[in-house]
Ent-kaurenoic acid oxidase (Rhamnella rubrinervis), 492 residues
Amino acid sequence: MALEYLGSFWAVIMSIFGGLVLVKWVLKNVNWWVYETKLGEKQYSLPPGDLGWPYIGNMWSFLRAFKSTDPDSFMSSFVSRFGRTGIYKAFMFGNPSIIVTLPETCKRVLTDDDAFKPGWPVSTVELMGKKSFIGISYEEHKRLRRLTAAPVNGHEALSMYIPFIEETVVTSLEKWSQSNEQLEFLTELRRFTFRIIIYIFLSAVDDKVMAALEKEYTALNYGVRAMAINLPGFAYHRALKARRKLVSIFQSIVDVRRKQRTSNVPVKKKDMMDGLLDAEDENGRKLTDEEIIDVLLMYLNAGHESSGHTIMWAVKFLQENPDILQKAKAEQEEIVKKRPPTQKGLTLKEYREMEFLSKVIDETLRVVTFSLTVFREAKTDVNISGYTIPKGWKVLVWFRSVHFDPEIYPNPREFNPSRWDNYVPKAGSFLPFGAGSRLCPGNDLAKLEIGIFLHHFLLNYRLERVNPKSPMLHLPHPRPADNYLARIMKCP
C-alpha cells in the first residue's frame, strides 16, 4: 500500500514538473510563433538572439540590468550566449526588434533614410507628440529641421546666445556658492539649462510657469524608458499626466502670443516661437497649434536634459582627476590672460580655442552616453552583415556598446580626455548626438552651454560632494541617486 501511494505521489510530481516544463516551453516560443514563423524562409536569416516571453519580451532582463550596478550586463548576456556578432534579435518595448552594436551597422541604420525611418515605440510617441521630430515623416522632418536648426545651432545664433548663457552661468554659480548650503547639483543644473532653452524659444516666462514646466518634464522623462503601463502608480501613467499638463501650459502660451500678434503688441525680440508662428510651406500652409506645441515640447525637453546631466558628469570627472582639472583650468586661465582689457565676456572665437576642454566634453559624452539607444524601423527587408532585418521590425542602435568597445576605445571605462589627441573617430564610433539626417539639431548649442559653464567653474569655483558613495541610477539617464548632493564654494 505504501509503495502504491509513493508511486502515485511521484507520478503527480512528475506530471506537475512536466506540465511546468511544457508551459515554459510554450511561453518561450509564443513570440517566435507569432513573429518569426510568418516570415517564412526569411526567419532562418534573422540575427541570433531570442524574443523572450510573450508581451514582456526581453524587457524584464533589460530593466533588471539597468536597475542594477551593471547596466551593460543586458547586452553582455547576448554576447555570451550568441557570440560577438554585433547584431541580435530581441523583443523590446512591445515590438520584435533588432539591436545593432557595431560602428558599421550603427552608421548604416542611422544614415540610410531609404531603408530606415524613425521607429520609436508608440508609448514614446504618445509622450513626445505625434507631430514632434520622432513622430513625423522624413519630408516633414526636413522642413521643420530647416526651420529650427539654424536659429539654434547657426554661427550667428550661437554668438547671440553667449552673453545670456554666460550671465546665467555667473549668476547661478554666485547664488549657489553664497547659499553655503547643500544642494542637489544636478537638479540646479537642470533648472539652469532649462532657463536657457526657455529663453531661446520663448524669450521669457513667469518663474512660476517655468518651475511648473520643469517639474512636469521630470515626470515625463521617467516615463520615456518605462514599460507602457497606463495604470495609477506606474511611471508611464504619471508621464502621460505630465504631458497633458505641459500641452495645456504651452497652449496658453501660444494663445497669448497669437493674441499679441493680432493686437499689434510690440515684441522686444523675435524668438523661436515667432519663427514657428511665421513658418509656412511653399503652399502657404502654416503650422497648427498641435505641431507648434509638439515641436516646443520636444525641443525644451532635449534642450535641457542632456546638457544639465553632461555638465554634472564633467564636473564630477574633473573633481576626481586633479591632473586633468589643472590642465583644463590652465587652458581657461590662458584664454582670459590673452583677452584684450576692453573685452567683456567670452566670444565664440575663444570658446573654439578651448581645445583641451573640448576633449573633456567629448570624453564625458562618451563615458556617460546620455541616450543609450535610438529607435528606427525597417521600411523594407534589409540585409546587414549577412542577416535579414524584416520590414516593419524595430532597430535599436545601442550607443553604449559602441562607446564602451575596448577595440575602439582602449580601457573604455577610464575617463581619459587625452585619448582624443590627434584622434578622429571613424563614422559610427562616436554617437552622443546620433548621426545622419536626424542628428540632434541642438548639438552645438549643448556643447556651447557645457563649455561656458565649465569655463567659469574651473576659473572660480570648486565643489565638495556630500555623498561620494551615493548609489547610481541608470534610468531614464545615468545619475547619482542623491542628484549629486554637494556644496559649491568660491575659490579664494
Summary: Residues 93-490 form a domain with the Cytochrome p450 fold (CATH 1.10.630.10). The chain has one domain: 93-490. The chain has a mean pLDDT of 88.
